[in-house]
Protein backbone atom coordinates (compact mmCIF):
# COMPACT_ATOMS: atom_id res chain seq x y z
CA UNK A 1 0.00 0.00 0.00
CA UNK A 2 2.80 2.42 0.95
CA UNK A 3 6.04 3.03 -0.90
CA UNK A 4 9.03 5.29 -0.39
CA UNK A 5 7.75 7.37 -3.30
CA UNK A 6 5.56 8.80 -0.53
CA UNK A 7 8.19 9.12 2.21
CA UNK A 8 6.05 11.17 4.62
CA UNK A 9 3.28 9.43 6.57
CA UNK A 10 1.10 11.82 8.59
CA UNK A 11 -1.17 10.37 11.25
CA UNK A 12 -4.20 11.80 12.95
CA UNK A 13 -4.18 11.00 16.68
CA UNK A 14 -7.62 10.49 18.24
CA UNK A 15 -9.41 7.51 16.73
CA UNK A 16 -6.46 6.62 14.51
CA UNK A 17 -3.55 5.87 16.85
CA UNK A 18 -5.35 6.15 20.20
CA UNK A 19 -8.72 4.62 21.03
CA UNK A 20 -9.97 7.85 22.59
CA UNK A 21 -13.30 8.41 20.82
CA UNK A 22 -15.35 7.08 23.74
CA UNK A 23 -13.51 9.25 26.22
CA UNK A 24 -13.93 12.38 24.09
CA UNK A 25 -17.67 11.75 23.81
CA UNK A 26 -18.09 11.08 27.53
CA UNK A 27 -15.93 14.05 28.61
CA UNK A 28 -17.74 16.48 26.29
CA UNK A 29 -21.17 15.31 27.47
CA UNK A 30 -20.15 15.60 31.14
CA UNK A 31 -18.77 19.08 30.44
CA UNK A 32 -22.12 20.13 28.96
CA UNK A 33 -24.05 18.76 31.94
CA UNK A 34 -21.79 20.43 34.48
CA UNK A 35 -22.00 23.78 32.70
CA UNK A 36 -25.77 23.45 32.11
CA UNK A 37 -25.37 23.49 28.34
CA UNK A 38 -27.40 21.33 25.93
CA UNK A 39 -25.93 17.83 26.10
CA UNK A 40 -24.86 16.68 22.63
CA UNK A 41 -25.60 13.16 21.43
CA UNK A 42 -22.89 10.58 20.86
CA UNK A 43 -23.12 11.12 17.09
CA UNK A 44 -22.92 14.90 17.45
CA UNK A 45 -19.70 14.65 19.41
CA UNK A 46 -18.23 12.02 17.10
CA UNK A 47 -18.93 14.30 14.15
CA UNK A 48 -16.64 17.06 15.49
CA UNK A 49 -13.70 14.87 16.54
CA UNK A 50 -10.59 16.09 14.76
CA UNK A 51 -11.66 19.72 14.60
CA UNK A 52 -10.08 22.44 16.74
CA UNK A 53 -11.83 23.02 20.06
CA UNK A 54 -13.14 26.44 19.06
CA UNK A 55 -14.87 25.01 16.01
CA UNK A 56 -16.19 22.10 18.10
CA UNK A 57 -17.85 24.51 20.54
CA UNK A 58 -19.37 26.56 17.71
CA UNK A 59 -20.98 23.41 16.32
CA UNK A 60 -22.04 21.83 19.62
CA UNK A 61 -22.96 24.97 21.57
CA UNK A 62 -23.99 27.66 19.06
CA UNK A 63 -24.55 31.06 20.57
CA UNK A 64 -21.99 30.58 23.37
CA UNK A 65 -19.27 33.16 22.75
CA UNK A 66 -17.00 32.62 25.76
CA UNK A 67 -15.18 29.35 25.13
CA UNK A 68 -12.55 29.60 27.88
CA UNK A 69 -14.83 28.23 30.61
CA UNK A 70 -15.84 25.31 28.39
CA UNK A 71 -12.19 24.52 27.64
CA UNK A 72 -11.27 24.57 31.33
CA UNK A 73 -14.01 22.11 32.24
CA UNK A 74 -13.48 19.89 29.20
CA UNK A 75 -9.73 19.60 29.78
CA UNK A 76 -10.36 18.66 33.40
CA UNK A 77 -12.89 16.02 32.40
CA UNK A 78 -10.74 14.57 29.61
CA UNK A 79 -7.49 14.45 31.61
CA UNK A 80 -8.67 13.76 35.15
CA UNK A 81 -12.42 13.54 35.62
CA UNK A 82 -13.32 10.93 33.01
CA UNK A 83 -12.01 7.42 33.49
CA UNK A 84 -13.09 5.96 30.13
CA UNK A 85 -10.03 3.99 28.92
CA UNK A 86 -8.12 5.48 25.97
CA UNK A 87 -5.34 3.04 25.08
CA UNK A 88 -3.20 3.08 21.97
CA UNK A 89 -4.74 0.75 19.40
CA UNK A 90 -3.27 -2.73 19.19
CA UNK A 91 -0.54 -2.90 16.56
CA UNK A 92 0.34 0.81 16.58
CA UNK A 93 3.80 0.36 18.08
CA UNK A 94 4.65 -2.42 15.62
CA UNK A 95 3.48 -0.31 12.68
CA UNK A 96 5.39 2.80 13.74
CA UNK A 97 8.52 0.75 14.42
CA UNK A 98 8.32 -0.90 11.01
CA UNK A 99 7.76 2.35 9.15
CA UNK A 100 10.68 4.05 10.92
CA UNK A 101 12.93 1.09 10.17
CA UNK A 102 11.96 1.34 6.49
CA UNK A 103 13.04 4.98 6.38
CA UNK A 104 9.72 6.85 6.37
CA UNK A 105 9.30 10.25 7.95
CA UNK A 106 6.47 10.09 10.48
CA UNK A 107 4.37 13.02 11.66
CA UNK A 108 1.15 13.81 13.51
CA UNK A 109 -1.46 16.39 12.48
CA UNK A 110 -4.07 16.64 15.22
CA UNK A 111 -7.12 18.57 16.31
CA UNK A 112 -5.62 18.65 19.80
CA UNK A 113 -3.89 21.79 21.02
CA UNK A 114 -0.12 21.64 21.64
CA UNK A 115 -0.68 21.09 25.36
CA UNK A 116 -2.88 18.08 24.65
CA UNK A 117 -0.75 16.36 22.04
CA UNK A 118 2.44 16.79 24.10
CA UNK A 119 0.73 15.18 27.09
CA UNK A 120 -0.52 12.12 25.23
CA UNK A 121 2.72 11.70 23.28
CA UNK A 122 4.60 11.46 26.56
CA UNK A 123 2.03 9.31 28.34
CA UNK A 124 1.75 6.85 25.44
CA UNK A 125 5.54 6.70 24.98
CA UNK A 126 5.09 7.23 21.23
CA UNK A 127 6.91 10.57 21.01
CA UNK A 128 10.13 8.88 19.92
CA UNK A 129 8.58 7.72 16.66
CA UNK A 130 7.63 11.11 15.25
CA UNK A 131 9.89 13.50 13.38
CA UNK A 132 7.40 16.36 13.66
CA UNK A 133 3.98 17.01 15.15
CA UNK A 134 1.60 19.89 14.52
CA UNK A 135 -1.39 20.91 16.62
CA UNK A 136 -4.58 22.83 15.90
CA UNK A 137 -3.37 25.95 17.75
CA UNK A 138 -0.29 26.14 15.51
CA UNK A 139 -2.08 26.29 12.15
CA UNK A 140 -5.57 26.56 10.74
CA UNK A 141 -7.57 23.52 11.80
CA UNK A 142 -8.82 20.64 9.70
CA UNK A 143 -9.99 20.45 6.96
CA UNK A 144 -7.88 23.48 6.01
CA UNK A 145 -4.64 22.21 4.41
CA UNK A 146 -2.25 24.42 6.38
CA UNK A 147 -1.10 21.67 8.77
CA UNK A 148 -0.12 19.42 5.88
CA UNK A 149 1.46 22.27 3.93
CA UNK A 150 3.55 23.14 7.00
CA UNK A 151 4.74 19.56 7.36
CA UNK A 152 5.57 19.27 3.65
CA UNK A 153 7.62 22.47 3.81
CA UNK A 154 9.47 21.21 6.89
CA UNK A 155 10.54 18.01 5.11
CA UNK A 156 11.17 19.68 1.76
CA UNK A 157 8.56 17.55 -0.01
CA UNK A 158 5.69 18.13 -2.43
CA UNK A 159 2.08 17.09 -1.93
CA UNK A 160 2.32 13.86 -3.93
CA UNK A 161 5.03 12.60 -1.55
CA UNK A 162 2.80 12.41 1.53
CA UNK A 163 -0.01 10.20 2.83
CA UNK A 164 -2.50 11.30 5.49
CA UNK A 165 -3.90 8.50 7.67
CA UNK A 166 -7.06 9.34 9.60
CA UNK A 167 -10.41 8.20 10.91
CA UNK A 168 -12.57 11.22 10.07
CA UNK A 169 -13.82 13.02 7.01
CA UNK A 170 -11.98 16.09 8.32
CA UNK A 171 -8.65 14.26 7.96
CA UNK A 172 -9.38 13.03 4.46
CA UNK A 173 -10.81 16.34 3.27
CA UNK A 174 -7.67 18.07 4.57
CA UNK A 175 -5.62 15.67 2.46
CA UNK A 176 -7.77 16.45 -0.57
CA UNK A 177 -7.36 20.17 0.02
CA UNK A 178 -3.59 19.77 0.33
CA UNK A 179 -3.28 17.50 -2.70
CA UNK A 180 -1.83 14.59 -0.70
CA UNK A 181 -2.80 10.93 -0.74
CA UNK A 182 -4.92 9.58 2.11
CA UNK A 183 -5.84 6.35 3.87
CA UNK A 184 -8.97 6.10 5.98
CA UNK A 185 -9.35 3.84 8.99
CA UNK A 186 -12.74 2.28 9.64
CA UNK A 187 -12.45 1.79 13.40
CA UNK A 188 -12.56 5.44 14.53
CA UNK A 189 -15.11 8.23 14.83
CA UNK A 190 -16.63 8.45 11.33
CA UNK A 191 -18.47 5.84 9.32
CA UNK A 192 -16.92 4.29 6.22
CA UNK A 193 -19.61 5.79 3.97
CA UNK A 194 -18.50 9.27 5.03
CA UNK A 195 -14.80 8.48 4.56
CA UNK A 196 -15.42 7.22 1.03
CA UNK A 197 -16.73 10.62 0.00
CA UNK A 198 -13.19 11.97 0.12
CA UNK A 199 -11.57 9.42 -2.20
CA UNK A 200 -8.93 7.79 0.02
CA UNK A 201 -6.52 5.42 -1.71
CA UNK A 202 -7.70 2.76 0.75
CA UNK A 203 -9.83 2.25 3.86
CA UNK A 204 -8.34 -0.19 6.35
CA UNK A 205 -9.88 -2.03 9.28
CA UNK A 206 -6.63 -2.50 11.22
CA UNK A 207 -3.64 -0.14 11.44
CA UNK A 208 -1.35 -3.12 10.72
CA UNK A 209 -2.66 -3.22 7.16
CA UNK A 210 -0.37 -0.26 6.47
CA UNK A 211 2.59 -2.63 6.61
CA UNK A 212 0.86 -5.54 4.88
CA UNK A 213 -0.26 -7.41 7.99
CA UNK A 214 -3.86 -8.37 8.93
Report on the architecture of this protein:
The protein folds into 2 domains: 8-19 and 87-211, 3-Layer(aba) Sandwich (Rossmann fold), CATH 3.40.50.1000; 21-81, Orthogonal Bundle (DNA polymerase, domain 1), CATH 1.10.150. It has helices at 21-34, 42-48, 53-60, 68-81, 92-101, 114-124, 146-155, 169-178, 192-196, and strands at 8-11, 105-109, 132-134, 162-166, 181-185, 202-204. The longest helix has 14 residues, at 21-34. It is globular and about 50 Å long. Helix 1 (21-34) crosses helix 4. A 6-stranded parallel beta sheet has the order 3-2-1-4-5-6, sandwiched between helices. The chain has 214 residues and is of the alpha/beta class. Helices cover 42% and strands 12% of the residues. The chain has 9 helices and 6 strands. The mean pLDDT is 95.
Which descriptor suits the 3D outline? globular
Q: What is the CATH level 1 assignment of the largest domain?
A: Alpha Beta
What is the average per-residue confidence, as pLDDT, rounded to a whole number?
95
As for the number of domains, it is 2
Spatial gap, N to C terminus: 13 Å
Helix % is 40-55%
Strand content: 5-15%
CATH topology of the largest domain: Rossmann fold
> What's the number of helices?
9
Q: Which segments are poorly predicted (pLDDT under 50) over 5 or more consecutive residues?
A: none
Q: What is the alpha-carbon Rg in Å? A: 17 Å
The arrangement of helices and strands along the chain is: EHHHHHEHEHEHEHE
SS content category: alpha/beta
Number of strands: 6
Largest beta-sheet details: 6 strands, parallel
The CATH architecture assignment of the largest domain turns out to be 3-Layer(aba) Sandwich
What is the spatial order of strands in the main beta sheet? Answer: 3-2-1-4-5-6
CATH superfamily of the largest domain, called what? HAD superfamily/HAD-like
Keywords: Hydrolase
GO cellular component, one term: cytosol
InterPro entries: HAD-like_hydrolase_sf, HAD-like_sf, HAD-SF_hydro_IA, HAD-SF_hydro_IIIA, HAD_2, HAD_sf, PGP-like_dom2
Protein name: HAD-superfamily hydrolase, subfamily IA, variant 3
